[in-house]
Amino acid sequence: IPHIFSKQENPHPRAAKMPPRLPTTIWREKAEKIKSLGIDPFGQRFDRTGYAKEINEKYKDVPHDDFENINDIYTVAGRIMFIRKMGKASFFTIQDKTGKLQIYISVNDIGEEKYDLFKSADIGDIVGVTGRVMKTRTGEVTLKCLEYTHLVKALKPLPEKFHGLTDIEERYRRRYVDLIMNEESKNIAFMRPRIIRCIQNFMDNRGFVEVETPVLSNLLTGASARPFITHHNAQDIDMYLRIALELPLKRLLVGGMEAVYEIGRVFRNEGMDIKHNPEFTCIELYEAYTDLEGMMNITEEIIRKCANRVRGTGKITFQGEEIDLESPFRRVTMIDAIKEVTGVDFHAIETDEQAQEAAKKLNVEIDPIKTSRGDIIVQIFDEKVEATLRQPTFLYEYPIENSPLTKKCKDNPKMTQRFELFIAGGEFANAYSELNDPIDQYERFLKQVEAREAGDEEANMMDTDFIEALEYGMPPTGGMGMGIDRLIMLLTDSASIRDVLLFPTMKPLN
User: Fold this and answer.
1) Which secondary structure element, helix H or strand E, spans residue 237, and what is its range?
2) Are 302 and 501 in contact (CB under 8 A)?
């Protein structure tokens, strides 16, 4: 686009960065030709009476000869995915949200003018068809076109049929094309809300109330993670995108709501890999008058219910590995799990120095700012044990250093009433018998503040309002958080979190 103004006279500094006009292509020329016929190349409202899947399912078992007495008429719409032109009669396939349907079209049925319009169509165009259901001699359910409607002219060609979007990065960047070309991607996209709805129905039937809590916060609390920081202009203060849902939900239990949950986005300013995206969806639930065992039971029920709802069974395959979600999940303490794998018994290790020596013998490199016995227990577990937990396993009793919001174990104040659920070597859920002692909570927050001042950017801040809330009294409570995206990965047999997010975070191309 030529510059109309000089650099000094340009009233819009960003005008020079405007993108170029769309290039003239054969598809744009076709769009102009359609417009010259008095037809909107980009369509208007079109009312349908049927969808591809329901038509295919309804008539798939009807014998070919029986269609002589069937005069069922349907109006459908979708994207052209295949065309086989044969002179005065042709076949083409449209794809709607439910699947594909074959169309038979003939100049004898719709006239030369509409047939010529059809012949100008390209794969990728969106069309409407009203027709009578029939079946070809090869047994394929087909709609015989009686009325053809152009709806939308595609100005870009779809990827080549047999290869599609072979570049994985391009699949994620251009999800709209991926959904057109890859049936598996579309199935996952439709499966995701079914899984979330299953969880919601389960929770609602258990008497929980779904709530919404703020995404923006003045404090960094609720989990150990680096935050995204933004700025509130009106108040001139920095704020954090939430890294967890926990503390606002606990305040609601103080207020007497007793059983609440939220499914929402959280944000963590950390690395990206096949299990991590900077923004992700999780559920957190809190129930008064229960504990860690109650959270184990409800977590197990949620996962089993979802598996049977969307997979029809609790015994599934994930990345070639048989996973049994039907049988009771195993329950083992962190210290016992470490002993099983490494032979090291932390019941016999009491000091930080002894723990450091044990890590050295196991060739586990210790984080220089996390050198206590409890910190080292977790680091050894992460490196040596986590990947070995293939079948569903509740790993419980975590060191107090890593669980600032959790009740202590009655018989061992160095450990807490906390579990994490591991399946196929990965973490799926995290739960506590929630700490409701305001004095203990204040002291835990002080230790987190000290850790933060010592350089731990993931340590929590002091939340004095939450301490005040606890002073009014929070019932004994169980709480659990679970990554929705990882559950969907498991139930759809997806290797990467990007496969279950419609729009995963991507590095800019420029």
Assistant:
1) strand 237-241
2) no
